[in-house]
Write a structure and sequence with these properties.
6-stranded parallel sheet, 7-stranded parallel sheet, alpha/beta
């Protein structure tokens, strides 16, 4: 077989984000491409050193799983397209991100570009020499790639302006929310009652603001806590702040210190990691979803809330402008006062709340569309490579 299309699926095996974030995106994109064109991807690359999640049936049931320790010698000469689905994967070298067998005249490389956030906040993410060197090496792979698949217009612009990638080499594929995020048949209040009565989340109140992000600097949880502290006591008591994210001991301690500093301990609930079913229920039940990120490659929690019919407000920056198009539902994330004012507005302005609850998802923000655009790009790259038996012209 010549002209292979290899989809690197190792991100779903990551210890850092396999169950959420990039891992979830990679798996959803692989499934979407497989639905659009089941014959396109010839191999899904996996690492036998790590377990393959049960949900990764796209590789197993299709019989297309390719182990990193069992790549036939013929692949180098077969040629094809190698999709780097997680080019900034931690603790891996450049030769792992783009294997040597997938280089050369008969191979084309492409990558999913999520964001270039470390280059925008170098003092937070690239403070050490080793971190800078590692990151620059990954950006070199992106510059050299034959095509990039950016997950938002914002990421596309950053690739053009920061990396100098020609615009015609970048396709915007966006993202989609899992279908499980949907408007509940029993209404938000019905889901809320079930959550509280079930005791699934100890300490959960019936009305709450929801934050799903994490302790990462750019997610701006400290800014949100300060903004929450600026609300009057009655509002805080009536609308608990629920923080949903995976926390190690150090991160939890840091956040608890900030909660104490702002004096909001009685009204903030840290749930830690929750399973998918619980995350959907919390999103459906929330009075308001607040997403105060300093920068996002896409901003999936905003899309998930909209799909559930839950009012959502977010930062006035980056890709979030593309997902939350209603200006009244955005705020300056660098200003706790701006965040607090937006929360009050969304809670008390009935007309705005009604508009937010009626928001629908832009059709381009779907896995079907992402799969179509990605499949088209992969086919075009594959077809640039002549088959072995092609006669010279």
């Amino acid at each position: 077989m010549s002209r292979r299309v290899v989809f690197d699926l190792r991100a779903i095996q990551s210890r850092h984000h396999g169950e959420r974030g990039i891992g979830r995106y990679v798996l959803a994109l692989a499934r979407a491409v497989e639905r659009v064109d089941p014959s396109l991807v010839t191999d899904y690359l996996v690492d036998p050193s790590f377990p393959i999640p049960p949900g990764a049936s796209v590789a197993i049931t299709s019989g297309k799983a390719l182990r990193t320790d069992d790549v036939p010698v013929s692949y180098r000469t077969d040629g094809g397209v190698f999709l780097m689905s997680s080019p900034f994967e931690e603790a891996t070298g450049l030769e792992t991100i783009l294997p040597t067998w997938a280089r050369g005249d008969r191979w084309r490389s492409t990558a999913v570009l999520y964001d270039l956030i470390p280059l925008l906040f170098p003092e937070k993410y690239l403070a050490s020499h080793d971190a800078r060197i590692a990151y620059v090496g990954r950006t070199a792979l992106l510059r050299q790639a034959d095509r990039l698949f950016a997950i938002s217009e914002a990421s596309r612009r950053d690739a053009v302006h920061i990396l100098g990638v020609p615009e015609h080499k970048i396709d915007v594929i966006y993202a989609g929310a899992d279908p499980a995020f949907e408007r509940p048949l029993v209404g938000a209040s019905g889901v809320r009652d079930r959550l509280v009565e079930s005791g699934m989340i100890p300490g959960l109140r019936k009305k709450f603001l929801l934050f799903t992000g994490g302790p990462d600097y750019r997610k701006n949880i400290v800014g949100l806590l300060e903004a929450f502290s600026l609300l009057d006591e009655a509002t805080r008591a009536a609308h608990q702040l629920v923080v949903v994210c995976k926390l190690d001991d150090a991160s939890r301690s840091l956040i608890e210190t900030e909660i104490t500093r702002f004096g909001v301990g009685l009204d903030v609930l840290l749930t830690g990691f929750v399973d998918d079913r619980t995350l959907v229920a919390l999103t459906q039940a929330a009075t308001l979803v607040v997403f105060p990120s300093l920068y996002e490659g896409f901003g999936l929690p905003v899309l998930e809330a909209q799909q559930c019919g839950t009012p959502v407000i977010c930062s006035d920056n980056s890709s979030l402008l593309e997902v939350q198009t209603l200006a009244a539902a955005r705020f300056d994330p660098t200003s706790p006062r701006s965040i607090a004012d937006a929360i009050v507005r969304a809670l008390n302005d009935n007309e705005l709340r009604h508009l937010l609850s009626l928001q629908t998802v832009d059709p381009k923000h779907s896995w079907t569309e992402a799969g179509k655009v990605t499949a088209t790009g992969l086919r075009e790259l594959r077809d640039e490579i002549p088959p072995h038996n092609a006669k010279p012209t």
